[in-house]
DNA sequence: CTGCATCCTCTAGCCACTAGAGGATCAAGC
DNA sequence: GCTTGATCCTCTAGTGGCTAGAGGATGCAG
C-alpha cells in the first residue's frame, strides 16, 4: 500500500511542506515518483516520520535526529551515542526549566506590582527601567 | 559625557551589532554622528538599552518591547497595556514550563532506559521509533 | 467539461540576532 | 611622519526549523 504525500502527511501528522523540507535536508530519503513527478511513499516513510516527529517533540535538534536516525539505520553499531544525545537533551531541558523558573519569579513580582495609573507611575515600566 | 558605540556596548552589555540592529528596527533612536559618521550616544541610550536588555532577558518579544518603550516614552498614557503584556508574558512562561516538565519526564524515562548494547537493541532508539 | 483538490518547484519570510567582507578612521608609540 | 592595531562604518548572508505564497500542472467527481 503506497501513499501520496498528502496521505503521508495525514498518517504521520506532519505537514506536507515539512515533509518536503525533511527530504531536502536529508532526514527523509528521496521517494520514488510517479510518471508525473508525484512522490510515492511506503510504510517505512510513516515510521521514519513518526520517529522524527517524536524526537522533535522531545526537543531534539535536526542534527541530533540525523545521528539518531543514522544509528537506527545501522543496528550493528554501538548505541552509546544515542544515550549521550538523550542525556544531553535532558540536561538542556532541565537547564531551560531552571532558567524559566527564575524568569517566572521575576515576572510574578512584575505582575503583582501592576498598577492602574498612568505610565509615569507604572511599576512594570519602572521595574524594567531600573 | 558622550559614548562611542563600543563604549555603549560595554556600558550596557549589549554587543555592537545588536545595538545597530536595534537602531535598524527602531527600538533605539538614530543617534547623532561625528563628522566621520561615527555614532555618538548619551546616557539616555544606556538607560534605554538597559530597559531593552532586561525585557529581552524576561523573554518579551521585540514587538512587546516596542510597546513598553512607547509607554515609557509617553508617561501620560494609561499603563494598562504594560500590565497586560506582563501578564501575558507570565502566562507564556508558565505554559512553557509545564510543557518542558512533561518533556523532562519523557526524557528521564528515555535516559533511564539507556543500554550498552548495539543500536539494534537500543531502548532510546526503540522508544523514539515506537 | 467544469471546478476544485492535490500536487509540483521555487523563492521569500519568520525571529532575534550573528558573522564576515571590505574598507575608513583613530590613537599611540617610535 | 609612519606604522600598527583597535575601532568604526555599511552591506550582505547565515542561523534553525519551518511556513507561506506564487505560478503552474495534474487528478478526480459530478
From TrEMBL, chains A, B:
InterPro entries: DNA-bd_dom_put_sf (IPR009061), MerR-type_HTH_dom (IPR000551), MerR_fam (IPR047057), Tscrpt_reg_MerR_DNA-bd (IPR015358). Keywords: DNA-binding, Transcription, Transcription regulation. It comes from the Bacteria. This is Transcriptional regulator. Residues 2-71 form the HTH merR-type domain. The keyword DNA-binding applies. The keyword DNA damage does not apply. GO terms for molecular function: DNA binding; DNA-binding transcription factor activity. Pfam families: MerR, MerR-DNA-bind. PANTHER family: HTH-TYPE TRANSCRIPTIONAL REGULATOR ZNTR (PTHR30204:SF92), REDOX-CYCLING DRUG-SENSING TRANSCRIPTIONAL ACTIVATOR SOXR (PTHR30204). The lineage of its organism: Bacteria, Pseudomonadati, Pseudomonadota, Alphaproteobacteria, Caulobacterales.
Amino acid at each position: 500500500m503506497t501513499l501520496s504525500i498528502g496521505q503521508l502527511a495525514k498518517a504521520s501528522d506532519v505537514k506536507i511542506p515539512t515533509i518536503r523540507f525533511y527530504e531536502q535536508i536529508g532526514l527523509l530519503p528521496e521517494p520514488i515518483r510517479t510518471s508525473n513527478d508525484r512522490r510515492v511513499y511506503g510504510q517505512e516513510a510513516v515510521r521514519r516520520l513518526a520517529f522524527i516527529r517524536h524526537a522533535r517533540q522531545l526537543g531534539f535538534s535536526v542534527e541530533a535526529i540525523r545521528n539518531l536516525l543514522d544509528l537506527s539505520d545501522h543496528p550493528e553499531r554501538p548505541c552509546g551515542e544515542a544515550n549521550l544525545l538523550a542525556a544531553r537533551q535532558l540536561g538542556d531541558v532541565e537547564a531551560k526549566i531552571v532558567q524559566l523558573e527564575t524568569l517566572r519569579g521575576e515576572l510574578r513580582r512584575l505582575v503583582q506590582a501592576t498598577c492602574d495609573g498612568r505610565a509615569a507611575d507604572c511599576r512594570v515600566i519602572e521595574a524594567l527601567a531600573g
